[in-house]
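Weekly puzzle thread! Below is a chain. First person to post its structure in token form gets bragging rights.
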Amino acid sequence: MNLIKLLCSYLGGEISRYISYCSHCDIIQEMTQVNQISELELGEKVYFEGASIESFLELCDIPKKYHEQVLPYLHCNECGYGYDEKKKSHPKGVFDNSILLFNEGDIDEYLNVDMSDWYEFTVKYGIQIKSFEIVNFLTTIKKSPLLAYRHYVGVKLFDLLSLMYEHGDYLLLKNKKLFRGRKRMLGTEKYEENQMWEPPFGVSTHGRYNIIGTSVLYLTDDIKYVPYEVNLTSEEELDIATIKITQQLKILDLSNFMGDFGRFLSESPHDLKTLKFEYLLSNYISDCCKEIGFNGIKYMGVKKGNYNNYALINFDKKNELEIVAVDNVKVGIRYRILE
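Winning reply:
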């Protein structure tokens, strides 16, 4: 019996070399949370869920009758859960059949978030944001959006944006004409100038750079894309205000951010829920910008086309902006049957 125990101890140590992560590792628990949110929102999990202990032992050619005897000698190389050879004990806990196992390749997709667009700023200001940290942050703000500022990545983003503002890493906007559209039912009265500003506090829906009820003035730099931005239907008319920036505004320019971070910022919501999970990261950035002092944010248009949008968050519409015209525009809507 002692010989079998000694052999199982040796085998446990040897095959543990292939256990890169287990379900007790922080990074795996984060990935599991992302899977849970994805399943809730989209009906499917997006990342590998892990291999069972039994399948792992079978893959290592351990006879089934010895599984229970090898199990106490397994350990995770990442978090140290399981058997500690030096201490001859289990300081963090003993492996059981409920634990799932992962290797490096299993989490490559999860860790591989393209943050290259931030590289210039993170190097310049010495605030590094690792790829997987953004995914971790996204998971957290989907669970507790109002506590995003307490998350360490939330702190890093705020500090980075603050330094960008202090060092003038922003776009100066002046004497530029932008456009805002409002749709109304056919046959109703055209909007007046005073009705073409941002929605009053308390009535706005959840937007890309505003939470429910807060006011942001959304504008675009190409009038052709206004109907797409407001999702105009054949039962509606469209009024478009031409708004001139009369005083210099400081704008955080996110329009060149491509890669995964750009995708996170420009992703369209997958459903019609009141709270749209895809907007929570850009909502947080907007709140940071407002607190720091930015006047607005420039971001790439989310519809198909080469144009940019602006979300103005700090502005004085009496002194910094001017509506130069409000026009009722005729829009032709075409339908296409998709095969």
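Puzzle host: Confirmed. Bonus trivia for everyone else. The chain has a mean pLDDT of 84.
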